[in-house]
Amino acid sequence: MLVTIEGIDGSGKSTLHQALGTALADFSPVITREPGSTWIGDAVRRAIREQADPVAEALLFVADHAAHLREIVRPALAEGHLVISDRYIDSRYVYQQVTLDGIIPDPLSWLRAVHSGWTIIPDLTILLAVPVAVALERTGKRGEGEHFEQEHVLSRVQEYYMRLVEEDPSRFVIIDGTLPPEHILRVASEAVRFRHAEQR
Ligand code: ADP
Ligand code: MG
Prior knowledge:
- The protein is an alpha/beta fold.
- The longest helix is centred in the first third of the chain and has 25 residues, at about 55-80.
- Helices cover about 55% and strands about 10% of the residues.
- The protein binds adenosine-5'-diphosphate (ADP) and magnesium ion.
């Protein structure tokens, strides 16, 4: 079973991801993330840092996803493991919709086409929803020079996440990311246990 954690920067994904690994220790989960800790993942981070061409950046993200599936996700699922990924396919569907806007006519269709036929759709996606202002506060980016642009980007990303939910509501569990971490952990781990029991 493949579980992914999504949400805007500062929504609490990594905090939950780490805690879920412990809370679901009885499943011996494989804990993983995108972009990965590989040279392709490094290339993605470099592309972001050096503000590479958006299409080049998007394709590096996709390359990272392909390597992640081959090296970690597929083998772990084949062995029957629970896999929990901090960010996955939806992160590209929403962030690259913003970065490719005005460069590619219909970025979401393009992104879907690029992934089609080889990716693995998650069984469950936990989406942490927090107001953009809270997320910016948490990541310390409030009041910075790029604050207004960042706020605009995150608002769009949040909206695109919600559109993905509308298209496939049964895949998602939305959790209010402003709740205390223990509360979020409880709701998330119960959602995973429930979905797991359902799939057996
Ligand atoms: P993400 O991985 O989504 O960017 P993080 O898990 O790194 O988010 O969390 C961003 C910041 O917010 C961290 O400083 C973290 O300690 C804090 N944080 C995470 N979850 C919560 C929560 N539920 N309530 C308050 N603060 C939180
Ligand atoms: Mg994180």
